[in-house]
Amino acid sequence: MQRLSESSIRPLIVRRSPSGLRGTINVPGDKSISHRALMFAALAQGRTVIKGLLEGEDVLRTADAMRALGATISRDGSDWVVEGRGVGQLREPDDVLDMGNSGTGARLLSGILSSHPFNSVMTGDASLRSRPMRRVTAPLAENGACFVTRRDERLPMAIVGTGAAKPLNYRLPVASAQVKSAILLAGLNADGETRVEEPVATRDHTENMLRHFGVPVRVETTTDGGRVIFLQGPAHLTARDVIVPGDPSSAAFPIVAALLLPQSDIVIRGIGLNPLRTGLLTTLRDMGGDLRLENERIEGGEPVGDLHVRGSDLRCVDVPADRAPSMIDEYPVLAVACSFANGTSRLRGLAELRVKESDRLAATVALLEASGVVVRVEGDDMLIDGLGAGQVPGGGKVATRMDHRLAMSAIVLGLAAGQPVDVDDTAFIDTSFPDFIGLMNKLGANLGGTADAS
Ligand SMILES: O=C(O)C1=C[C@@H](OP(=O)(O)O)[C@@H](O)[C@H](O)C1
Ligand SMILES: C=C(OP(=O)(O)O)C(=O)O
């Protein structure tokens, strides 16, 4: 498969859409669930068939890593087939594991590698090499593994795993499903009970999928809305087929674009509706967005539905900090929606945005300011002075900083703004949403004005 290269850039000039968006689409498979499906299938005994796997760059890196660790992974039509090795049975990789742009791949894999008795080395692209790893290496080192990172706790890092991992008892200092999952994955090959406490509930795909693979996971809810997760190791995973729902974080882009363009009327089929992922839908409804769920059902153990979206006049919103984990990747595109709303919006508690593929707090401010929107940061909150439907001047040049969500947010902004928006590079969209531009064009977005690559 082709791999993203930091030197092949794809600029795009985005012009206002001539009409509203119309049509019915499916978005690609959920990225979080896709990473986990490959990892858990590799840790299971037997053969797992995965339907709807996201074939984005981030997930393909995870597939490569699990192959390097001894799993057999192949594509059969549109299905992916994994012959697993079993917990504790992965083998030492004979080369560096390159996780590309993916924080989820790197953090979750650290948990697996820490509790296997061999050595490995992990790296990533320039974006991933700038992201903090201490949040996983600090707790995981307590299970007996040893990590040698660069001096500032960044990748590349060497991991000396242990075959006699101690179970961890850890309270997360930040709301992070990646850290929670890394600890649970390490616990699969530890001797005894692993306990992870999260002060705010984060996406629970790891807990759900472990149960699906036959591992008893106990969850208690704390009085202040947090959760404690218990897992008994060593655990045995039995191969079970997986169906991956459409990614609500990817759906966010066509959803916001349709809301901002009058006369839009679209349906997105089969979106994952796990309640720990639907903060954006709640927020857009609070803003007056015309969003209707149809055909709600359970598929592959996760709630899914079809979402009907119509162009809407939006009003400003005040988003509480405790909603952040349920929409953490959606803030850049929500900020775009707020720019076209009436009144000043306040998005609270966004500290974690500073450590994503880019500093998304700074990058979102730059994205909006370049197109004539007044926006400011107060502590960890972002305040956006909305200009009203169709009133954002546009004309900005956007630096996407190796960040797929920024590139897609800039495209949504450009589709609804007055003047063309100049996006420096759209290549990283392939990490999570291959053919995003093709799908938007299918809805009538008319994204064609590619500038010359330089
Ligand atoms: O566990 C996961 O699959 C993810 C968790 C989130 O990261 P954090 O755990 O850092 O919040 C999210 O931003 C990321 O895109 C996917
Ligand atoms: C933060 C993201 O992903 P990751 O942490 O896996 O790089 C994202 O997809 O927005």
Provide the number of structural domains.
2
Overall geometry: globular
Put simply, the count of helices is 12
Q: Would you report the number of β strands?
A: 24
What distance separates the N and C termini?
A: 24 Å
EC number: 2.5.1.19
InterPro entries: Enolpyruvate_Tfrase_dom, Enolpyruvate_Tfrase_sf, EPSP_synthase, EPSP_synthase_CS, RNA3'P_cycl/enolpyr_Trfase_a/b
Catalytic activity: 3-phosphoshikimate + phosphoenolpyruvate = 5-O-(1-carboxyvinyl)-3-phosphoshikimate + phosphate
Subcellular location: Cytoplasm
Q: What's this entry about, in short?
A:
The chain is 28% helix and 26% strand. With 454 residues, it is an alpha/beta fold. Helix 3 runs parallel beside helix 4, helix 3 (103-114) packs parallel to helix 5 and helix 9 (331-339) packs parallel to helix 10 (360-370).
